[in-house]
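U., I forgot to send this yesterday:
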Amino acid sequence: MGRTVAKGFKAKGIDILIIDKKPMPQIDRDEFLIIEGDASNEEVLMSAGIVRAKGLVSVLPTDAENLFVVLSARELNPDLFIVTRASDDRAEHKIIRAGADRVVSPYHTGGIRIANTVLKPAVVDFLEFATKSGNLELQIEEVIVSENSKFADKTLRDSGIGHDLGIIILAIRKTDGTMEFNPGSESKIVSGDTLVAIGEVSKLKELEDLVQDVQ
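Result:
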């Protein structure tokens, strides 16, 4: 699971560092920056530069190990965005109280995906196609509207995102965490909004550049 996460980040050009207790194969050492050690140890986290990190993903085998990592990391960097896994649903609330921002249950998620593969195979195929890293035809991305963006305080219709770029806005996430699904043409874009968009990769990159432009 950790290798899959790491490859996903690398595909997006995000700098990452891996901490693992066990020696890793040379093929991984050639591809990633790796530190051998216990990620729940504060000294190891400090040597990995936890105070400068923007985010942390903990996918250790047990919920107890992930809980200790979250506790240590949150204490060292209060602003860190932390995502971890939980095998037991009962552990999820404890890990969130310890400081995790998101908790993912691979068994729950995997079970739903298996059921949907049988019940809604076309939907699963579409989502896999649209979210697969490296797919150049179609992607689902999120784009943050910068402060003073020229799109700020415009409606989706006036922004021209759909008409000019051929991009579909699936949802708008507000700064308070609320989500507006399938927004209409009169939905207003505000600075700080996160646009969840689907379209061609080149067009999505163009959208990202456009929303950063200032008025």
